[in-house]
């Protein structure tokens, strides 16, 4: 094989997996937002396998102060869950929501996709435009698909930013009522008309909103 052929071949060879791990680590560390595998692949050399590199990197960070976590369909480096209390003050100060916003966010999270009318039916009161706008501005909810019903009302769903903030891989990882009680996050304040499907104890949604207050 000639020198030029050898050089050309080397340009298309994937870097060693150790080098790929370092590349993925650098990208995730420098990015404020979670990064998808496709985005990683677009930044890395030809032939690299960011998905495999993520598996190795995630294992290497197990038990450390920060972890490699999946957020929706993307990946990020985030503080280990058991050290989240160290960030609690900053979280509380920058993300404090009104009672109405907390309830609205909780309803969307547990019942998404949800229309404004459905949110109002569960809360028992009207939802102000300001409440929805606040959650949209925080980028914790976004517009979903319109319902194929008269008027084609818009729906709302939680965002990847919401999942990232609360350390969730997907909305399916939202805690149940028993988990919230065990964590001391439930109270008995009533929320008119709100009950979760599959709630064996007949509790309402009000307690679930407490998870968003920290």
List the helices and strands and how they pair.
Layout: H1 3-11, H2 17-30, E1 35-36, H3 37-43, H4 50-60, E2 66-71, E3 74-79, H5 88-94, H6 99-111, E4 114-115, H7 116-123, H8 129-137, E5 141-143, E6 155-158, H9 160-165, H10 177-182
Antiparallel strand pairs: 1-3, 2-3, 4-6, 5-6
Helix pairs in contact: 2-4, 6-8
Order of helices and strands: HHEHHEEHHEHHEEHH
Number of domains: 2
Strand percent estimate? 5-15%
Integer average pLDDT: 77
Would you identify the CATH H-level superfamily of the largest domain?
Winged helix-like DNA-binding domain superfamily/Winged helix DNA-binding domain
Please identify, by name, the CATH architecture of the largest domain: Orthogonal Bundle
Strand order of the largest sheet: 1-3-2
Please state the structural category.
Answer: alpha+beta
The rounded Rg comes to 22 Å
Shape: elongated
Sketch the major β-sheet.
3 strands, antiparallel
Distance between the termini: 64 Å
The CATH class of the largest domain is identified as Mainly Alpha
Extended strand count: 6
Number of helices: 10
Low-confidence sequence ranges: 4-9, 183-214
Query: How much helical structure, as a percent, in the residues?
Result: 40-55%
Which fold name fills CATH's third level, the topology of the largest domain?
A: Arc Repressor Mutant, subunit A
């Amino acid at each position: 094989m000639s020198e030029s052929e050898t050089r050309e071949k080397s340009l298309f060879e994937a870097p060693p997996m150790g080098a790929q791990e370092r590349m993925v680590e650098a990208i995730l560390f420098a990015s404020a937002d979670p990064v998808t595998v496709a985005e990683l692949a677009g930044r890395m050399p030809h032939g690299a396998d960011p998905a495999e590199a993520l598996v190795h990197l995630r294992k290497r960070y197990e038990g450390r102060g920060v972890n490699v976590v999946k957020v929706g369909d993307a990946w990020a480096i985030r503080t280990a869950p058991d050290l989240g209390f160290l960030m609690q003050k900053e979280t509380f100060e920058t993300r404090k929501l009104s009672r109405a916003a907390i309830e609205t966010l909780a309803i969307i999270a547990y019942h998404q996709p949800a229309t404004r009318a459905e949110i109002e039916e569960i809360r028992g009161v009207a939802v102000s435009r300001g409440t929805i706008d606040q959650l949209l501005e925080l980028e914790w909810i976004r517009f979903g698909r319109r319902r194929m019903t008269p008027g084609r009302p818009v729906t709302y769903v939680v965002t990847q930013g919401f999942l990232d903030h609360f350390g969730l891989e997907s909305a399916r990882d939202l805690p149940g009522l028993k988990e919230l009680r065990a964590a001391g996050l439930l109270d008995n304040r009533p929320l008119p008309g709100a009950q979760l499907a599959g709630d064996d104890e007949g509790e309402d949604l009000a307690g679930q909103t407490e998870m968003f207050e920290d």
